Amino acid sequence: MSAYGAITVTGRPAALLPPTIWELPAPTPGKPTRPVTHLAVHHLRLGEAQALPHLLEYMHQVFAAEVEAGTTYPQEVATDEKYTREAFEAYFWAADVVIAVGTDAGRVDAARQSVEAARAGRSWEDSLVGFYYVKPNYPGRSSHICNAGFVIPPPYRHFGYGKTLGKSYLHYAPSLGYKASVFNLVYTTNVGSARIWDALGFTRAGLIPRAGRLRRADGIGEEWVDAIVYYRSFVGDEEWARPIDSI
């Protein structure tokens, strides 16, 4: 539920988008050697995810831990409560989700066929290197602008996968029918995320002072943190200039 109430997803393709393969660039100096050379990126919706054994359970576990950490997402649960599977599915799976399965050069053809072929018998813990949702940021007349939320499971952080996931977002979001993207709350303490969106051509549309009451990195107490609002158009100025009825 957003500040606008429930947001209905309209205009997206009826079928899932085709999988894509993304070759990872050579690690930058100081980054560890990556365990995989390619990402098999697959588009899913909730029904398809439910047919993949233990996927939703694992993704919920990873996201719930991120919420509990209290440093990147605004959701909060009481000390004696847990972030539930139902809350996760309602928030993360409201529209479309994209997952990235690690693979190597010798398996890219198979990895392109299906999620299970990409997983190749491995557990989700050993194969799922990242995932993100794509959904409208606003309802109705502004629903052509989407939002996304990215998660890299802890074992796969610091390998530089985030930027490749960001590039895949620039492929999948327009293919789902969106014309632009807004990220509402990129906390300034999330330096890695800000670096990715700056590098991928997003505009810093604004800064919200003290937007988050986040846990401190040292684990001692909380602090007020500013948030960057990022924007990027997926279409050129010539498309925005056309009469809307012709688009």
Report on the structure:
It is a single chain. With 247 residues, this protein is of the alpha+beta class. Helices cover 27% and strands 28% of the residues. The protein contains eight helices and eight strands; from the N terminus they run ββαααβααββαβαββα. It has an eight-stranded mixed sheet with strand order 1-2-3-4-5-6-8-7, sandwiched between helices. A hairpin with an 8-residue loop joins strand 4 (128-136) and strand 5. The longest helix is centred in the N-terminal third of the chain and has 15 residues, at 55-69.
Describe the protein's topology.
Elements: E1 20-23, E2 38-44, H1 46-50, H2 55-69, H3 85-92, E3 96-103, H4 108-111, H5 115-119, E4 128-136, E5 145-151, H6 161-175, E6 180-187, H7 191-199, E7 203-215, E8 222-233, H8 237-241
Parallel strand pairs: 5-6
Antiparallel strand pairs: 1-2, 2-3, 3-4, 4-5, 6-8, 7-8
